[in-house]
Write a structure and sequence with these properties.
α1 runs antiparallel to α8, α9 packs antiparallel against α10 and α12 runs antiparallel to α13. It contains 16 helices and 14 strands. With 592 residues, it is an alpha+beta fold.
């Protein structure tokens, strides 16, 4: 099974490497294919439709659909041939594409598209280009009259193509504002669609041609903001570290010195225990709902490893803008290959803590993330089908994903579970657990779970807040994010801050004689996800122009799943950090 996983990883890396290494060379006069991808309202990046859903000119020889990879389909790409004829190094002026006889229904479609600010996307030699369908102009109105609008349809497209020797380097597209058709009130129209092509030589090397799309991520003012984000995060880490060092460690050091001076059992009996020392007989009492607890830790560990693997590829330069959904492909493949980690960690922890029903544990681990994701996908795919958008996955793609889960994800989880249940490791608690749990004294409201979660999630969220905007603008907008090194630094800071703040809150919880820290450490560690999801609402209403049921469903639905994944990942980090801390402090004192 491990050999299959390594083979799949090798195939993925090979496919990504092949994507990076695509190099098309042309001879003068050789045709350069233009593929149309999709159209949709500019404000709603997920609400995209197939190019020929609008009555554009069709190829005379019939439409041809380009085969697409898994990542391209997941991104909603549907590449189809167009009637545009580009020949290498051959200029064209006002070439007629076709004459379209537009009826009332066709004009209604174009009117809706122009009014909703529709754009189109095409690919020329693997390079993406964008343009708008038309434009809306505000007409002057007399006093007392309603404001009027003029809807104009662009009928001419100009391609500026840069080449270096026998390779295409850059493509730009523009429209001619003097060549438009007024479709505001027309019932029918005969429209001549035309285009022109201009070829120019450049000295930009072929391997730098994608730099244009990443250029805006490296503008000086943007870099300054990114570095400010890192500095802000580092200050947060230093403050937390200083807090732990000066407050926690000073208190703990005094306690340790006090216990070190106690040399005999009689003196120990005379020493009055207070605070966290008083619950030494309950602090290692295993949590309720043990099966679910272990599944959360195992799945969270899997997501953390998967994230680190994706970061590793990104830092190696594997991902670049518009490379055919390589990152989404990586997410699917790495999630499948790391399923064994979730099975092993969950089953091993379950067995160490005394669990016996390992089959139930493996099934819980398998469905803990996949189950909610399947339910969400089923709803969103149904919405996409109802709207007829390219976000709806074809049946064949769904079958492929199901096969990956059935033949890779689930078997690896089972294999990991078998290895975990056969582990020889033991828990070896520093303190003996009493037979009956100690009664927890009444606690003020701010010591309860929800207020503690809010306190725990705020600091980690403040460390990543600035970077979140750029990520959202890339995923839910038309910006490009390529500064993966800075993103990785912010991610590591997020992990560190989460661990530190969870340790601090675990200590405060034990100090008031509340020994139920197991689930609390997961809830507090993962609470940053709640702040991220709250930020989703802020971004929707204040920072974007997204609208409509379809876009809202995809935005809030998939962000809910992303935040759920963050909750599991950071929750497992919080638990691991708290467990190490609790072990350390109780090892340093004498326990019965």
């Amino acid at each position: 099974m491990a050999r299959r996983g390594l083979l799949a990883l090798a195939l993925l890396l090979c496919s990504l490497g092949c994507a990076l290494g695509k190099d098309r060379k042309y001879k003068p006069g050789q045709e350069v294919s233009i593929w149309a991808n999709k159209v949709g309202p500019f404000a709603n990046p997920t609400e995209t439709y197939q190019y020929f859903n609008l009555p554009f000119c069709h190829p005379k020889e019939g439409k041809e659909y380009k085969p697409e990879g898994l990542g391209e389909v997941l991104e909603g790409d549907r590449l189809v041939s167009t009637p545009y004829k580009l020949k290498f190094k051959e200029n064209k002026e006002n070439a007629v594409l076709c004459t379209q006889h537009l009826g009332s229904d066709d004009l209604d479609q174009f009117r809706d598209a122009v009014a909703e600010d529709y754009y189109f996307q095409m690919f020329i030699d693997g390079l993406p280009i964008w343009g708008f369908i038309g434009k809306v102009e505000k007409l002057p109105s007399k006093e007392g009259e309603e404001e009027r609008e003029k809807l104009s349809l662009f009928t001419h497209i100009h391609f500026d193509v840069l080449y270096n020797k026998d390779r295409v380097i850059q493509v730009d597209i523009s429209t001619d504002p003097s060549k438009t058709v007024d479709i505001t009130t027309a019932d029918k129209a005969d429209v001549d669609f035309t285009y022109s092509v201009s070829w120019k030589e450049t000295d930009i090397p072929y391997d730098r041609r994608m730099d244009k799309y990443a250029r805006y991520s490296f503008l000086p003012q943007h870099l300054e903001i990114h570095w400010f984000s890192i500095v802000n995060s580092c200050v947060t880490v230093l403050l937390l570290t200083g807090f732990l060092a000066t407050i926690l460690m000073r208190v703990l050091k005094n306690d340790f010195i006090k216990y070190a001076n106690v040399r005999d059992d009689e003196a120990l009996e005379d020493t009055e225990e207070t605070g966290w020392k008083l619950v030494h007989g309950d602090v290692f009492r295993f949590p309720p709902n043990l099966n679910l607890f272990c599944a959360v830790v195992g799945t969270g560990t899997q997501i953390l490893v998967m994230a680190l693997m994706i970061f590793a590829l990104s830092l190696l330069g594997t991902y670049y803008p518009y490379n055919g959904g390589a990152m989404l492909t990586s997410v699917v493949v790495f999630y499948a290959l790391t399923a064994g980690i979730a099975g092993y960690v969950s089953a091993a922890l379950y067995k160490i803590m005394g669990g016996t029903n390992w089959v139930r544990n493996v099934l819980t681990t398998t469905m803990l993330f996949c189950g909610p994701l399947l339910a969400m996908f089923s709803y969103l795919n149904s919405v996409a089908w109802a709207y007829g958008t390219t976000a709806a996955l074809p049946f064949g793609t769904i079958v492929i994903i199901v096969i990956i889960w059935a033949l890779v994800t689930f078997p690896l989880t089972v294999v990991g579970g078998i290895m975990g249940k056969n582990t020889k490791a033991e828990f070896n608690a520093p303190c003996r657990t009493t037979k009956y749990p100690r009664e927890i004294p009444p606690l003020p409201w701010y010591r309860q779970t929800v207020p503690q979660m809010l306190m725990a999630g705020f600091l980690p969220f403040s460390a990543i807040y600035i970077e979140l905007y750029y990520i959202f603008a890339s995923v839910w907008g038309h910006k490009v994010y390529t500064i993966y090194s800075i993103l990785f630094i912010v991610f590591i800071i997020l992990i560190i801050v989460t661990a530190f703040i969870t340790i601090a809150l675990t200590y405060f919880q034990l100090a008031v004689e509340d020994h139920r820290w197991w689930w609390r450490s997961i809830m507090c560690g993962g609470s940053t996800a709640l702040f991220i999801y709250a930020y989703c609402f802020y971004y929707w209403y204040a920072r974007s122009d997204m609208n409509g049921l379809m876009q809202a469903s995809f935005y809030f639905g998939y962000m809910l799943m992303v935040c759920y994944g963050f909750f599991l990942m950071l929750g497992s980090v919080g638990f691991r950090a708290s467990l190490a801390f609790v072990r350390h402090i109780y090892k340093a004192i004498k326990c019965e």
